[in-house]
Design brief:
This protein is an alpha+beta fold and 93 residues long. The protein is built from three helices and four strands; from the N terminus they run αβαβββα. The chain is globular.
Length: 93
């Protein structure tokens, strides 16, 4: 049985590990609404990180509709609803 952290892509895991090792330990979560402390902690732990080891910034961007975008060390992982919908529309054209 896989845990949440075991199902993370190895490339993403390597980038997240580099985040912890770097001087800039800031992870930015972009969402369409303000996350509660519990939601933030759940997301961070789902990535295999410990909230106590990194700085977490939040940005609100209602245009993403839902989901989230995770930014770290110049990289970003776009898991937003807006991007998923744009991909579906692109596939239909």
């Amino acid at each position: 049985m896989q845990t949440k952290t075991q199902s993370i892509d190895p490339k993403i895991r390597a980038l997240l590990t580099s985040l912890i090792a770097s001087d800039n330990r800031t992870l930015t979560l972009v969402t369409s609404y303000e996350l509660s402390d519990h939601e933030t902690k759940s997301i961070v732990e789902g990535l295999g990180l410990k909230a106590e080891e990194i700085n977490i910034d939040q940005e609100i961007d209602k245009s993403i509709l839902g989901g989230l975008i995770i930014k770290f060390n110049g990289y970003y992982l776009d898991l937003s609803l807006k991007t998923k919908l744009n991909q579906i529309v692109g596939n239909l054209n």
